[in-house]
Amino acid sequence: MQTSHIYPGAHSLNAYITINGCSDAIEFYKKAFGAIEKGRLLMPDGKIGHAEIEIEGSLLMMADENIDWGNKSPLTIGGNPMSFGLYVKDADAVFQQALDSGAILVMAIEDMFYGDRVGQVMDPFGYKWMISTHKEDVSFEETKKRFDNMMSVQ
């Protein structure tokens, strides 16, 4: 059997995040998003040097913050321009589950012009999650028309 050029369980593009409190984050992601822990590699001081979880069939890799290695979490640097886009079967249920697990409301869940039902939360570790369920196939041309119409009414 030939070894694939892509790590087992990964896709061609994957996220690798740095977290202050990686172990707590893994537990949060289990409760909030039904994550499955695949494994952890511990540093001598007990912090996580590498961990892998799976959410909805996608691999998310992570590690504890390690200033000596130049890995800083969003909480340390005071923000984060990145968001996760998470597609689930029932956005309303997962959105509420995330809030009940300790996430903070960023944007209430609603149907969007591009065919998805979407809500946004901030997890306790400084990462924003767009929780979505695709409801309607919309062409890019129709999406643009709806977007332009939405912008003209504001």
Automatic annotation (TrEMBL):
Give the matching CDD domains: VOC_like (cd07246)
Q: Residue limits of the VOC domain?
A: 9-134
Entries under InterPro entries matching the protein = Glyas_Fos-R_dOase_dom, VOC_core
Xref: PROSITE patterns: VOC
- Domain of life, source organism: Bacteria
Classification via Pfam families? Glyoxalase
Q: What protein name is recorded for this chain?
A: VOC family protein
The species is: Flavobacterium taihuense
**Species lineage:** Bacteria, Pseudomonadati, Bacteroidota, Flavobacteriia, Flavobacteriales
